[in-house]
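Can you give me the bound-state structure? Components:
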Amino acid sequence: MSDQPLQKTKARPVYRNIGMGDLANYRLPIIGVASIVHRITGVALFVGLIVLLPMLHMSLKSEAGFEAFRTIVWGNWIAKIVLLGLLFAIVYHLVAGVRHMIQDANKWLDLAAARGTATAAFVASIVVTALVAWRIMA
Amino acid sequence: MSGKSFTQEWWLQRISAAIIALYVLLLIALLLIYGAPSYSHWQSLFSNNAFKAFTLLALISTFYHGLIGVLHVWPDYVKNAMVSSALNAFSWLAAGGYALYAIYILFFLK
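Here's the bound-state model for the whole set.
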């Protein structure tokens, strides 16, 4: 039993369920960022199919359609950003998905490996996205 | 979620992921090696029956994988029963519509 005076004790941390409104008060570690971005890219791709399938349709319909598709994509920076975003989403979702499955097999679960591979997933997908973008624009 | 057992869903999610990953890696490799295709190259790639079949398999896997994914994601954020069933219905419709559209693009164009 300690006799420390009560007024000297620090405010105790409060643990509770947090809602959306509390999110700004928490710093999300890179492992958490990797997880939520995997989720966001997944949903974005499912929704993005509504753009990707018509693009495939247009590119295969006729030579005129193919050229029109190229004009839309390369002549318009909004289309370019959307397309590059979807390309990043595909690559990141794949890389992070492979990492996730390796973790299903009980590997890369310690803090250092989980952090390192989360960072590596971002670096690798940005590099691959940039390489593909550079290759198709050249 | 989709009426299947969770174990079955877990496996199907990973099998579909592997199929999609192979297809995406093939496309990325082709783009990195050959750069942006011309119309004639693009057209002849998609008139190859093996590639067509692989495309269909990869697209159907994508729609299934995405449907299972979003059906698991929505309930984490949407608690209202009506909004929730509307989202689920839209997701099923989207996946079904995508599948019909993909079959049309691959096999019934012109």
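A couple of observations. Chain A has one domain: 29-137. The mean pLDDT of chain A is 91.
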